[in-house]
């Protein structure tokens, strides 16, 4: 068990606390920010635990990575199953864009429900 040390500032003793892994730089994008907002609002215990342990950034970066991979995988599978390919893109770009936007929206909805908002 580690002993907490203190330093004096004026009349107060201030604990010397150092967060581990605080120097690591994580990429947190759209999905990480959505997860952060969700746990701040609805999972306050988890948010507090991650903050105290100093692992919030790592958690958000892991969510970002797995959500991005999930969306990309789902998009590929749905596009293949619905026959949305380069031939359609070259023959009818507007229809291809509509189909891909539809697929992306469905893929993100799945990821929201399975990874971010749990």
Could you explain how this protein is built, in words?
This protein is mainly α. It has one domain. It is built from five helices and two strands; from the N terminus they run ββααααα. The chain has helices at 30-42, 44-53, 56-81, 86-91, 93-116; strands at 6-9, 12-15. The protein has a two-stranded antiparallel ribbon with strand order 1-2. The chain starts with 5 loop residues before the first strand and ends with a helix.
Sheet with the most strands: spatial strand order? 1-2
Fraction in helix: 55-70%
**Distance between the terminal alpha carbons, to the nearest Å?**
34 Å
Number of helices: 5
Summarize the helices and strands and which ones pair or pack.
Layout: E1 6-9, E2 12-15, H1 30-42, H2 44-53, H3 56-81, H4 86-91, H5 93-116
Antiparallel strand pairs: 1-2
Helix pairs in contact: 1-2, 1-3, 3-5
What key phrases describe this protein's structure?
118 residues; rod-shaped
């Amino acid at each position: 068990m580690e002993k907490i040390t203190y330093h004096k500032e004026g009349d107060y003793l201030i604990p010397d606390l150092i967060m581990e892994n605080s120097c690591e730089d994580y990429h947190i994008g759209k999905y990480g920010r959505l997860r952060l907002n969700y746990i701040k609002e609805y999972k306050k215990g988890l948010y507090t635990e991650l903050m105290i342990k100093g692992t919030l950034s790592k958690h958000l970066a892991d969510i970002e990575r797995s959500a991005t991979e999930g969306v990309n995988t789902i998009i590929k599978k749905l596009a293949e199953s619905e026959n949305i390919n380069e031939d359609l893109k070259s023959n009818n770009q507007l229809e291809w864009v509509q189909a891909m936007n539809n697929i992306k929206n469905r893929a993100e909805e799945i990821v929201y429900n399975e990874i971010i908002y749990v």
